[in-house]
Each structure stands twice: as structure tokens, then as C-alpha cells.
Records
---
Amino acid sequence: MKITSTGIENGYYKPIYGGNGDLINENGMPTYSIPFTIHEAPTDTVSFAAIFYDLDAYEVTQGFPWIHWTLANLTTTDVLENTSQQATDFVQGVNTWHSPVTDHQPAELSAHYGGMTPPNRDHNYTLKVYALDTTLALTDGFYLNQLTDAIKGHILDSSILEAQYKQFKH
């Protein structure tokens, strides 16, 4: 299985997908979600789940990765850009914008894509997609641990896509 994204140029996500773009909600969270395509998934795949995260955030959060997007029950191999805000064909978990690291943005606003805003330098971002043999009993607003528990024993394959995002210029 392989993942590609038209949102990446020269190893970097385009500015629109994070704080260097224009689509920011009232709490400062970028909302314009990344596009991606899944290739060569197992033929018996029922659904996909994905986690988009930033391990370089450890320095900023003092020890925690930043979860930008979690989604489950995706049944298509193409996720268009800015799909997160109006998605009806998959469920989304809360991101780190809902955590004490921020100002506890409400869960209903955080159960979407929360874009990249690396404050200290360019960061590396990881999109991990799982091909699953089932759909999951999750609803919008789930937490990452609920997703990782639900996919256990159902993973047919997985793939990782990595790219960077330029330091956020306030």
C-alpha cells in the first residue's frame, strides 16, 4: 500500500494546509485539510483509518506528539483537500487543539483537521493510513486511544507519508 498527496511540493506541504494559509478558525486553528490518495490497498479492505501527527512537536509540548487529524471508516481511496470541515462519509476524532496544551478548544471544533503551525522551526509531519477488514464502532469526537484500540486485530496493511511544513510566521 502507498499514499500520495497533491498537497506536497518539494517535500513540503503547501502553506494553505496550516497556519501560513488563510483558513483559520476563531481559535487560531488552521482548518483547510490535506488531500491524499491511497494506492494498492488490499482487495479485501472494508475501510481505512488515518492519523496525521507531528513528532517534532515534542520540543514545543514538552514531551507529546501533536495530533492534527484522526479519521476512521473512510471507504474511498481519495480524500480531497478541505474535506474535513464538511465530511459526512467518515468519522473524525479530536485533535490536540482540544488539549490543555492549547486553550481547550471545544471538542466539536476539534473533531476535524487541525492544521500545522510549527512555532520553532520547520517540522516533519507523518500521515499513517491503515487498511482495515471492518468498519469501526466510533463516532465523531473519538480520542486517539479509542482509534488505536479499535483497529487492533483488523489491520490488513498500513503505509506512511512524510513531508515537512515551514515554520509558522505569526
Note: The helical segments are 58-61, 107-110, 144-151.
---
Amino acid sequence: MSAQAGTAIIGGGIVGLCVALGLAARGHEVLVLDGRDGDMRASQGNFGLVWLQGKGAGYAPYARWSFQAVQAWPDFAKRLSGLVDVDLALCQQGGYEFFTDAAEYEAFGHDLHRQANALDDRLSFELLNHADLAARLPGIGQRVVGASFCPLDGHVNPLRLHFALRQACLASGVRITCGASVVSVRPAGAGFALLDETGRQTRASRVVLCAGLGAAHLGPQLGFRAPIRAQRGELMITERVADRLPFLSSTIRQVDEGGFQIGGTKAETDCDTETTTTMVGLAQHAVAVWPRLADLRVLRSWAALRVMTPDGYPIYQRSADHPGAFLVTCHSGVTLAPLHATRLAEWIDGDPAAPDLEAFDERRFALS
């Protein structure tokens, strides 16, 4: 069996579907080759944050890219709702970073000032001591020494976002092939030949590699270094609660269905998705921040794998060896979704109005 495509996108997660939607909106024929249901999918295990504070404090291009993304989210959500009837549960009413260690709180405050400088002081944030927090959030834990607050931060339901993107792609004429885990991709004639594990072949004029951790294997076949590694994050979900949590943080959020989602761990791993005893630390931190959580039952927990580059920033790369091949990878697919579905498609097309993304070229690792 074989298929033909103008642009083939390898990977049907949030990143791949956003790119597909953007290219379809520009009039391209797009085929998404998605893997198996059992694949390690960051799109189905993430925290769902639309988050700005702290991002790019040490790398101005990423600070600016993230700033544009969070600003674009309201219009992006409206665009999706115009294509499909799915409530993304987007809420951008601001978010907190809580600290129980004074040195970490002070260091993060310095990072926010660096990020603000990178954004020409367009970043609005507050640094709040314990007394400030106690006045604003009665019930905050005594161990919290301080917090930062950014009014642009928010969250969405990531599973609904993934579903909405898939439906929006289909409504826009994108073809999606499931169970198509690509095992090889190579230049062929004026385009590329892709082979999946079932033996099915696809010929495409262009190929965009959005395969997450799978890009580490496929990337070198197209001349990319693709220095990607897995980082495990663990999450837990509590029972549903009628009372609404009066804040959103990067480690504690109340999902739209009512349960609390608690997360925030980082562990280097070789694709191990088993949960560990660090769950205890998650629970202890959550209770230290908001003691009222102590009596809630945990219903389920899981571990998922982040897609990480050496410096943590995205890679947007054109293949120097094989024109028409692109690598797109990042670990902030939810936050960056509006730009991946618009400005990144312009960049792939070589549009003169496209953003300059040279700062995200993977050659920066060789230079450093």
C-alpha cells in the first residue's frame, strides 16, 4: 500500500496537529501520520498550562516567542471554536509560582526581572511575600515564604485541546492516518519516501518531523542532529470538589471537572513512565501550599515524558542536506499552540512575513 501527500507531518500530537492546521489554512494538502494509541504521548499526559512567567529568562528569543503565544491564546481558542464545538476550558486569569524556600523565591524573582528586561518591560508580574499572600488568599500555608503572580498565565483542558485540534484539522481537509508509526524516512526523487511499521509507504513533497521523542531516531535520517531526551514528570488527580480553588499555580490546578491536578516533578529517564515515591513529595508540597487539600482522596496518578532539548528551548530547523524537510520539537506544545498553527506555518513556507526563528536552529548547540 502507498499514499501520496503534498506535506506529510510525522506525529499527531498537539504540535503536529497545530502545524497541520496552519499549513491547511495556507492552502496546502496535508497528511498527518500518527502513531499507535500506546505510544508515549506528551499530549495526553501534560499539565495543560498556558504559561509565561519564568520562560526565557536566560534566552530572550524564547521569552519573546512565549509572550506572543500567551497573548494569542484567546483568539486561537475562538478560531478553534469556530471550527469545532469543543469547550477547551481556557482560563487566563493569572497564575502563581509558590515557594517554601526563601533562596528559591529570591532567585526566581531575579529570573522574572531578567525576563522582563528581555521583553522590554512588557511583562507584568508581582512578587508577593507571605503577608501579601495571606491577605489575598486566606488559607495559604504557613510554610509559603512568597510567590510570584503573572496575569497572563492560565490553563486549558489538554485532552479537549488535542481532540479539538484533530477535529479542526479534519474539518479543514487534513488527512490523518492512525497507527502509522514511521520507522524510516529518506529523500526520494523530488520529495521523500516514508515507511511505517506496517509496511505502508507514503510519498510526499515535503516532510515535517513533529514526532516528539521519536524525532531522536528519525531526525538523523534527514540530516538533523535532533538532540532530544526524555524527562519524566509525575501527576496526580484528586476527587472532585464543588468549591473552586481560588488560584492557579504551575503545580496545583483545579480542572474544569472539579478535581485537583498536582504535579511539577522533573527526572531524567530512559523513557521510563513508572510512577515513583516522588509522588509523596508532590502531595507534601501541595498541602504545604494549600492545607485544605490534606483531606482529599487521590483517585489516580501517572507519569508522562516531556520532550526536552539540551537547553530546554524549541528546535525549529530546516534540513540543510534535504530541502523540504523540517524538524519541529518543543516541550511547551500547549503554550505555543497558537504560534505553531500560524506563524510557524509561515516559516515553513518561507513567507517573507514569517518570523525570524534562527535563534531556535539546532546549530546553536554546536556553537555553544
Note: Residues 2-49+159-228+311-367 form a domain with the FAD/NAD(P)-binding domain fold (CATH 3.50.50.60).
---
Amino acid sequence: MRAAYTIGAFALVAVIWELVKVLVPADGVSIAGTRVLPRTGDGALPHVWAVVTVLGEADGTGTVGTTLLRTGTFTLGLSLLALLLGTIVGVVLAVAMQRFGWLERGLLPYVVLSQTVPLIALAPLVAGWGGRLAIGGQPWQPWMSIVVIAAYLAFFPVAIGMLRGLQSPPAASVELMRSCSAGWWATLTRLRFPAAVPSLMPALRLAAAAAVIGAVVAEISTGTAGGIGRQIIVFSQQATGDAARLYAAVLAAALLGVVLTGLVALVELALRRYSHPPGTGASTGR
């Protein structure tokens, strides 16, 4: 069903795309010298079928499609690493804030404030700091900076969603664990972690999309070659009268978010026994 929704969403975008080309003049619409609707000529907004057919055009030693597949795979791998790193950081922060109320009161505002820092300003700093580091005697690699920058975006929804989930068990359930002489760790693993799954999974889907966005922006900001972000810049410089290649790269980057979100859906499927909040009356797999 979710696959059908995804296909339907892309089909709706394609229909709206073509309607804009039909209804809006090629030179756009201007009011009092101010452009309010963009140009829709082929140089600015190619047809959907032009974006699809451009995948078969020659590009270097292969085609545009193979170039996007290669660079997209590179970015997808970095996004997945960023999602894993961001999830670990977010879960650790959430557990710490749930355990210590004073830490939540002092740290949570800064966790929220961290997302106001623009990546375009953060990327050069991370790349510069990383260039002075060595891990296990090995120099810092440019792709590591991309992973850190993307994880910076991904950790936030995980931390907030996980914290909300850890705090979701009813007081009666917590008291029951205490009456059974369960310590903090037993309560965390047997009560709070399972109860946090319904809040964690939507957060992971947001984090997956954020990881892809962060990786693409980081590739552009740091000038790292090999990924879809840098390929977008290359195609934008080649777009002289025909922007089909540029739009194909942008759509390929959007598909990376769909793929990574699909991987999260597989994790959600594996944890479906915990997918219902406590007290909803749904089956818990017993």
C-alpha cells in the first residue's frame, strides 16, 4: 500500500509539472516588473519524458543513468552511515535525558537550538576540524565530514521521538516494575524501550529524509566528488538550453530519500509487535 502511495505521489507531481508547462507562458508571468511565476520553457522546465529519456544519453564512459546510479549509490551509503550515527547519538541523548531530569531541562533547549544552525555554514567548519584529526593513524577522509554533517540533521528527530517514547509508559506500569524490584536498566529495556517504538519509527523516517538532505548539501558545500550532490552541480553547469540532466539528478536525489525511508519501513515491519502505543488495546504479540 505504501508503495502505491509513493508511485501515486510521483504520478501526481508529473501531472502538475505538465499542467504548469501548459498553463504558464514560456517566459513566466511578471507583475509590475516582478516575476511571480517562473519560466516554463524547455531550458528552465523540461517535459517529464525529456527527463526520463535523458537517462540514456552518453555521459563520459557511460550514460547519464549509470552516472546517477553510481553517484546515487555513493550518497546512499553515506546517508545510511549518517542515519546510523544520528540514531545512536539520538538514542543515547534521549536515554540520558530520561534518566536525569536536570539533564533534560538543561540540554533539551540546546538540542532544539542546534537545528537552527545552517548546514552551509557548518560544513566548512566540520571539514576544517576533521582535516586535523586522525583515526587509528589514518587521516580524516572527506566522506567522514559528510557523514558527520548529515548525522547532525538526523539525530534531532530521533532524540525528540525517543525521549517522548521513553516517557510514555503509564505511571502504573513503572510502579509495577518497581514493585517487582526491577532496577533502572531492567525498566528501561523491558518497559521503556518497547513503549518507545511507536514514537521512534516516525522519527526514524524523518531522520532518514534528513540524512539524505544533509549528505547532498554537505557534498555541495565541501566540494566532495563522487556523490549525487556534486553531480547536481556538474549537470547545472552543463545545462545550456536544456535542464533535463539537472532535473534528472534532482529527482534521483529525491529517490534516495524514498529508498532510505523504505529501509526504515523494513525495520518497522520487524518491530511491528511493538508498533501500537500502550493502552490502545492492540495486540502485543502474546
Note: The first strand starts at residue 29 and ends at 31.
